[in-house]
Every structure is written in C-alpha cells, then in structure tokens.
C-alpha cells in the first residue's frame, strides 16, 4: 500500500510539474516593445458612469469638458492617433441610402438636434445634424458644443479614406445579420493588407456573418468573448486554444487575466500563434465589456513589460504613462 501511495504521489507530482512547465510564463519567450493602445471612441467627452442603463443619454450627464473633441468624428480620431493611439474604435450604423454612418447611439435624439432611430435615416439627412447639440454638463443650462459640429458625422468610407494605414476597430451596434453582410461587402472591397488592419466586434449575428464572409478580418462578439475565455480557463492548461479565440480580437478584463493559463507571456504567445490580438479591459462585473484601463492605478495592475493591447477611454493620459504620448 505504501508503494502504491508513493507511486501515485510521484505521478501526481510529475503531472503537476508538466502542467507548470507547459503554462508558466517564466519560461515563455517575452515579446518586447510597448503595449498597443486602443482609443475607445477616440478622444471623447467623459460622463458620469454611475447607474447607467442602455437608454441613458450620456451627453446629458457630461462631466465638465477639458477639451472640445466629440467621439466618432474624424477630428477626434486624428487627435487620438497623434496622442499615441495605435488603434481607434468607432461605431457604425447602416443607413437607408446604403451608407454606414459613424455614430454611437441607436437613436439620434440624445446627442443631436434630430429625432428617430439612426439606422432608419439616410446619410444625407444625418449629415445635416448637429452632433454636439445635446451635450451639457450643468443639467441643460448651457450646451457648449451646440452649433459647432453640424455635418461632422462621418461615413465609414470617409474614415477609411482619412486613415488609410491606421488600425481601426469597427463596432456593429445591432444584432442584425444583414448588417454584417453589408459590412462584409465594404471590407471585401478593400485590399487584403487594409483588411488585416481592421477588426470588428459587436452583436453575435452580424459579427458571425462578417467572420464567415471576411475570414481574414479578426472579430469578436459577446458570445465569442465568453466562449473564448471560459474555454481557455477550462482547458487552456493543455496548450489548446478554443476555436472562439482563433483569428479574433480577444478582450480580457483585467480582473480575469490572472486566471488565464500562462498569463501574460505564454498566453500572449498562444493567442499570437492563433492570429489573435489581445486587449485588456477594465474590471468586469457582469455589465458591458466597455470599461477601459483609464487610470494609473489600473495600468499599474498590468505585468511589468506587458506588450499586449490596452483598451482605454483616456488615451492621452494612458499613452503618456505608457511612454507613447506626444513628444
């Protein structure tokens, strides 16, 4: 009996040692360089994030502005890249005249002087709107951007033309598979090298369509994020990468990262081998995957020498700390 116990203990130790060697980041090659910074919505006006709901008008709860940039505009995107962003995220909606409008909200009522569902309007109509109309930091007493952003809602082709060699993340706001088909047609008309610099995320149905029709564009959806991370936590110790993590944008909440086998370097290497890009988000607490690494304290929680992606709503501040800000 004693011999059997010793043999069993030896096997257990050997297996544990094998799992450790296969997964420790200490023995993994370190990818050098600075982190890849993603500016969520470009440089945007910040707002009170407490008790947010899906239909909360964030423009009406803007914090006192420290700059005059508005999200999802060419000017904001350009400033983001100049501030140190490697990639900018933008939101799109199909329009009734066959375009894609770059705008965050499902309706235009909150931010603009228009009314109605964004995707039920023509791009010609959307181009007439003042996209700074609804912003206020004092409960409606003043509107500092009114009249200053008429006609500034861009189309997706305008963004692609303005930044022909820049990395972009396109957010599909709907769950309409048909929208994914339309977006895939736009992407497939681009050169292969340009498509490689574009990623798509959003609703499961449109993203699945883009993934099928434009297989060289890396994608992620809410369901795919869960499938990728849960699957990897479950059996990533084997070295196997879940299918949802392949050719993907892998979004990792910073409080989930320590649970990933081989975090950080071995995990980053495995994702790179799967043609996937990793971006760390702010802590996940059961809500939306949109909080960012927005404070020095959160940035300090990343491992020293981390060279993967960082998702942030505060590109100017984070770029400076990360050593990628303006000279």
UniProtKB/TrEMBL annotation:
<dbReference type="GO" id="GO:0008081">
    <property type="term" value="F:phosphoric diester hydrolase activity"/>
</dbReference>
<dbReference type="InterPro" id="IPR017946">
    <property type="entry name" value="PLC-like_Pdiesterase_TIM-brl"/>
</dbReference>
<feature type="domain" description="GP-PDE">
    <location>
        <begin position="51"/>
        <end position="322"/>
    </location>
</feature>
<dbReference type="GO" id="GO:0006629">
    <property type="term" value="P:lipid metabolic process"/>
</dbReference>
<dbReference type="Pfam" id="PF03009">
    <property type="entry name" value="GDPD"/>
</dbReference>
<dbReference type="InterPro" id="IPR030395">
    <property type="entry name" value="GP_PDE_dom"/>
</dbReference>
<protein>
    <submittedName>
        <fullName>Glycerophosphodiester phosphodiesterase</fullName>
    </submittedName>
</protein>
């Amino acid at each position: 009996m004693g011999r059997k116990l010793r043999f069993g203990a030896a096997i257990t130790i050997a297996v544990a040692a094998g799992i450790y060697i296969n997964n420790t980041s200490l023995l993994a090659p370190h990818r050098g360089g600075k982190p890849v910074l993603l500016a969520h919505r470009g440089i945007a006006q910040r707002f009170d994030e407490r008790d947010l709901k899906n239909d909360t008008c964030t423009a009406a709860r803007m914090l006192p502005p420290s700059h005059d940039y508005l999200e999802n505009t060419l000017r904001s995107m350009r400033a983001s890249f100049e501030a140190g962003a490697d990639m900018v995220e933008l939101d799109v909606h199909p329009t009734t005249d066959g375009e894609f409008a770059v705008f965050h909200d499902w309706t235009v009522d909150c931010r603009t002087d228009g009314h109605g569902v964004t995707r039920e309007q023509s791009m010609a109509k959307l181009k007439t709107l003042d996209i700074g109309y609804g912003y206020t930091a004092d409960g409606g007493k003043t509107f500092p951007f009114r009249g200053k952003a008429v006609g500034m809602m861009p189309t997706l082709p305008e963004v692609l033309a303005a930044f022909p060699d820049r990395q972009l993340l396109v957010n599909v706001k709907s769950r309409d598979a048909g929208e994914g088909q339309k977006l895939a047609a736009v992407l497939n008309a681009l050169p292969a090298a340009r498509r490689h610099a574009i990623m798509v995320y959003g609703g499961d149905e449109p993203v699945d369509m883009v993934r099928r029709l434009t297989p060289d564009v890396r994608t992620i959806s809410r369901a795919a994020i869960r499938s990728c991370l849960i699957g990897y936590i479950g059996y990533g110790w084997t070295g196997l990468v879940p299918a949802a993590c392949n050719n993907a944008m892998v979004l990792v909440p910073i409080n989930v990262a320590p649970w990933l086998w081989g975090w950080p370097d071995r995990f980053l290497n495995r994702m790179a081998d799967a043609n996937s890009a990793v971006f760390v988000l702010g802590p996940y607490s059961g809500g939306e995957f949109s909080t960012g690494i927005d404070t020095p304290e959160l940035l300090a929680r990343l491992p020293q020498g981390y060279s993967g992606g960082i998702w942030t709503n505060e590109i100017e501040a984070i770029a400076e700390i990360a050593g990628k800000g303006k000279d």
